Amino acid sequence: MADTITCSRCAQQKPQLPKPPAPGAVGREVQEHVCADCWGEWQNMEVMVINELRLNFMDPNAQATLDEHMRKFFFLDGGRGDEDMPVPDEEARKS
């Protein structure tokens, strides 16, 4: 049985993801702090962020931008995220 974690996004006690959803330290951090339901929400949001910001993964900065949005979405940097998370359309217009 999976370990139980307190999800950083929904603040509920839920089972830990069965394996890290991404390679390296980021994947381990997500596994330790994010439940499966919130990970599923992120997968939908991730598509919207990629599309709205028109992230091109041939650009090395694209992954860093996506990681920043993911950290804010999951409140992994201590904030509550949503109010601090830029609306993708607004950020795209800045560039």
**Total individual domains:** 1
What about the largest sheet?
Answer: 2 strands, antiparallel
**Number of H/I helices:** 4
Beta content:
5-15%
Mean pLDDT, as a whole number?
Answer: 85
Describe the global form: elongated
Distance between the termini: 46 Å
Q: Could you estimate the helical fraction of the residues in percent?
A: 40-55%
CATH topology heading: YggX-like
List segments where confidence is low: pLDDT < 50 over at least 5 consecutive residues.
Answer: 84-88, 90-95
E-strand count = 2
Q: Would you identify the CATH architecture?
A: Orthogonal Bundle
Fourth-tier CATH superfamily name: Fe(II) trafficking protein YggX
SS class: mainly alpha
- Strand order in space, largest sheet: 1-2
Secondary-structure element order, N to C: EEHHHH
Reading off the top of the CATH hierarchy, the class is best stated as: Mainly Alpha
Radius of gyration: 14 Å
What does the model show?
Helices cover 52% and strands 6% of the residues. The protein contains four helices and two strands; from the N terminus they run ββαααα. A two-stranded antiparallel ribbon has the order 1-2.
